[in-house]
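Onboarding guide, step 5: your first structure request.
Type a short instruction followed by the sequence, for example:

Predict the 3D structure of this protein.
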Amino acid sequence: MNMDGKIKRINELYHKSQDIGLTDEEKEEQRQLRLDYIASVRGSLKNQLDNISIREKDGSITDLKVRHRKKELRLELSEKRKSIDEHERKKMDEAILKVLTGLSEYKSSNTVLTYASYNGEADTYGLINTCLSDNKKVACPVCSFVDGEPALEFYYINRTDELKNGYRGIPEPLKDGAVKVPKEVVKSSLMILPAVGYDRSGNRLGYGKGFYDRFLERNNTGITIAIAYSCQECDMVPVEQHDRKPDIIINENGKV
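The system replies with structure tokens like these:
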């Protein structure tokens, strides 16, 4: 039965339910027909949305098909990351740290800007402690919104216990009493980026709010490195106009 026929049958069953009622078989038929109709409407809307592009305030173009694919990838790759055995995760984090701290870019850096890991992300607490042991300055971001736009500010920390839950539970420095990293220091800093996913072309999939892409667009930074697990690699990350590639991507096996 095509959709026009299903709609006709849905109407017939509705009117019958109002007049004399439906049998159990007819109630089940009605339920299934309604589910089919809803699925058809959703599919039609998705196809329409996939062909729509939106011009943002900054003039950039958002392709809703790309945005939808990114959302699907985030769900898929986040589940893969969560499913990692904790014993294996610890070994992978140690391997990532070894690769990262062995880079000449790390060894020559004086200041490291890094996210504070949570919710199954590749660990950065070991990195923070290693940086401090190596007499490097460390700063972590504070997320906020300025005129409705996502914004990051980095503040120095001296210990990991200075990090408290902030935006969406993400650990971040308390701004009160903390020192903000000046722009001139950002220019020469090594910056560590979180990643939900990545591909072999060097594209990074973030969380969708654009905090890091906007920060990189508005600030000259030193080397940028995204870290993630190998299970977070995908064939192709959908790319939008505002997306910024990290200079280096690292997983537990080395540089990607």
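Each response can be followed by summary notes, for example: The chain has eight helices and 13 strands.
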